[in-house]
Amino acid sequence: MKVKNWSRYPNFSREEFCCRHTGKEAMEEKMVFVLQLMRDQLGFPFIISSGYRDPSHPIEAAKDEPGEHSLGVAVDVQVAGEHALELLDCALANGIRRVGINQKGPYDKRFIHLGMGDIINPSKYMDAVWSY
Q1: What is the spatial distance between Cα 76 and Cα 106, in angstroms, rounded to a whole number?
Q2: What pTM did the predictor assign?
Q3: What are the Cα distances from residue 101, in Å, to 6, 56, 119?
Q4: Cα–Cα distance list, 46 to 21, 82, 97 (Å)
C-alpha cells in the first residue's frame, strides 16, 4: 500500500521521497513506517538522498529491470562515520535485509542503501549486503 497520510511520519516529508527525474512519489507505507521507527530509535536526523525512482529515471532505465527504488521499497540515506554504523545496526534490527554501503569519498557523498526487496513478490530479491 502506498503512503497516503504523510502526517504519520513527522520526521519526513513526501518531497524527500519524490523521484528526482519525474517528481512522482510512490513509496510503500511499510518502508516509510520502518524509516520513521528507525529515526525515533536513533534520535538523530538522516537525509534521504534518493527515494522513489520512476522506471524512466536514468538509473532505473539503465537496468535490465527496474529495481527496489522503482517499487517504493528502498531509499539511499546520506550518512557517514559513526552514524553509518548505528544506522546499519538499526536497519538490520528492524527488518531491512538489503543493504548497499558506500562509505568512501567525501562525507557528503557517502550513503547506505536500505531496501526491503519486493514485498509483493518476496522471492524476487534475495537478502544481500554489497558495497559500491
Answers
A1: 16
A2: 0.94
A3: 27, 24, 22
A4: 22, 13, 19
Half-sphere exposure of 48 (CA within 13 A, CB side): 28
Cβ(40)–Cβ(10) below 8 Å: no
Digit-coded pLDDT (tens) for 72-86: 999 999 999 999 999
H or E element in which residue 76 lies: strand 74-78
Show the cell assigned to 105: 569519498
Distance between CA 29 and CA 62 in Å, rounded? 26
- In whole angstroms, what is the distance from residue 24 CA to residue 29 CA? 15
In the chain, the domains with their CATH numbers are 6-131 (3.30.1380)
